[in-house]
Amino acid sequence: MKPPHILCVNPWIHDFAAYDFWAKPLGLLGLAAILRDHGMTVSFLDCLDRFHPRAESPVKVLKDGRGPFRKKEIPLPAGVEEIGQRFSRYGIEPEWFRRDLKKSPPPDIIFVTSMMTYWAPGVRETISVIKEIFPRVPVILGGVYASLCTGHARQFSLADQVITGNAEEQLPGIILDHTGYSFTPKYDFNDLNALPRPALDLVSKMAYAPILTSRGCPFSCSYCASSFLEKRLRHRSPETVFQEIQHWHNIHGVNNFAFYDDALLIHPENHIIPLLEKIIHSGMPLSFHTPNAMHIRQISQKIADMMFQAGFKTIRMGLETADFSPSRPGDHKVTGNEFSLAVDRLKQAGFASEQIGAYLLCALPGQHPDDVARSITAVKEKGIQPVLAYYTPIPHTPMWQTACGNSRFDLEKDPVFTNNALLPCMEKDNAFKTIAQLKALTRK
């Protein structure tokens, strides 16, 4: 039997705001690489493609590879009209997508990924257009939204099948069930070092490359679903990661890399330190960014020095709050002294103040704005940038039920109500004014 043709699709974003902060569908491109590695032909269409051939020229690209998505205002979802802001589809024009689908070789099966739970409307619109062009081709939905809001996805996404969790081990069964084609895996899908590099070569232009050196996180923060999505922490070998970075730089000319890890600095002697040693020794002129928070406690002087030498440009630390009192609610992963030492070490290594940011959780259930304001002040007193991280209620997290009880929206009814732009766990009357004041405080 002839190997099937697989079409992979990255859907539109529907939101109040969106920006390409080193955002690529790494999981979907990983599956594409596995399928291609097993003899199947794979195509990729990206509804978020900033560099689409029909896009206006020149496309804005920052030095670090980031840039704005194209956007088109669309009607607000029902029930969120109170925010009084514009709502948009982020990504390429629908007609461009239709033309791309029609030009694609007829697929035997279509994989669609999903990211934020509250981007569900964009997933639905994407699949609806796919079904206009390929009404008889099975559409398989996976990703974060599919895993965290499985019932909603099965009812509303229009997908023919919704899969949860890591999809690698499910691939042989999915392909067989929907196409009749059988293949035997060449390697253990649980061995991260055996998996091929994600098929980033399928994107239209590589302004940057995402890098994942591990999966999972040893912590179980009350607001985070990482431990639900990944049951254990698994690492790739430093050599495998280095070879991937070297490949994208030498073959595709990529200089900017964004680490997607939830636990980049955990077990440093066997993980990040050997990797940094290889990068420094190579002499490659690279820039690294850490949009996901790094654990403050692991920032030793040695690691800070090596990150600077390796070319790290954007440092983001997971502080959450500058209230270090034992009685404070929430998780206790770092002390005030550890935070202060980490900042001092980064500065001593050579990082400028504007390169270092500390994420502060904001708009949590029951959180008083004064607590956030004090944390902002404390971070600024250390001479670095406070970065507000607005709380998104996420199913399957310890804080989910508390969020449902404190929200003015029915969070369990529709994931669109969990959008952090709505500040769903703050009182409506003063929420947006309060947040505007806090944002202004970060800039003063």
UniProtKB/TrEMBL annotation:
<dbReference type="InterPro" id="IPR023404">
    <property type="entry name" value="rSAM_horseshoe"/>
</dbReference>
<keyword id="KW-0408">Iron</keyword>
<dbReference type="InterPro" id="IPR006158">
    <property type="entry name" value="Cobalamin-bd"/>
</dbReference>
<feature type="domain" description="Radical SAM core">
    <location>
        <begin position="203"/>
        <end position="433"/>
    </location>
</feature>
<dbReference type="InterPro" id="IPR051198">
    <property type="entry name" value="BchE-like"/>
</dbReference>
<dbReference type="InterPro" id="IPR006638">
    <property type="entry name" value="Elp3/MiaA/NifB-like_rSAM"/>
</dbReference>
<dbReference type="InterPro" id="IPR007197">
    <property type="entry name" value="rSAM"/>
</dbReference>
<feature type="domain" description="B12-binding">
    <location>
        <begin position="10"/>
        <end position="185"/>
    </location>
</feature>
<dbReference type="InterPro" id="IPR036724">
    <property type="entry name" value="Cobalamin-bd_sf"/>
</dbReference>
<dbReference type="GO" id="GO:0003824">
    <property type="term" value="F:catalytic activity"/>
</dbReference>
<protein>
    <submittedName>
        <fullName>Radical SAM superfamily enzyme YgiQ, UPF0313 family</fullName>
    </submittedName>
</protein>
<dbReference type="Pfam" id="PF04055">
    <property type="entry name" value="Radical_SAM"/>
</dbReference>
<keyword id="KW-0949">S-adenosyl-L-methionine</keyword>
<keyword id="KW-0411">Iron-sulfur</keyword>
<dbReference type="GO" id="GO:0005829">
    <property type="term" value="C:cytosol"/>
</dbReference>
<dbReference type="GO" id="GO:0046872">
    <property type="term" value="F:metal ion binding"/>
</dbReference>
<dbReference type="GO" id="GO:0031419">
    <property type="term" value="F:cobalamin binding"/>
</dbReference>
<dbReference type="InterPro" id="IPR058240">
    <property type="entry name" value="rSAM_sf"/>
</dbReference>
<dbReference type="InterPro" id="IPR034466">
    <property type="entry name" value="Methyltransferase_Class_B"/>
</dbReference>
<keyword id="KW-0479">Metal-binding</keyword>
<dbReference type="GO" id="GO:0051539">
    <property type="term" value="F:4 iron, 4 sulfur cluster binding"/>
</dbReference>
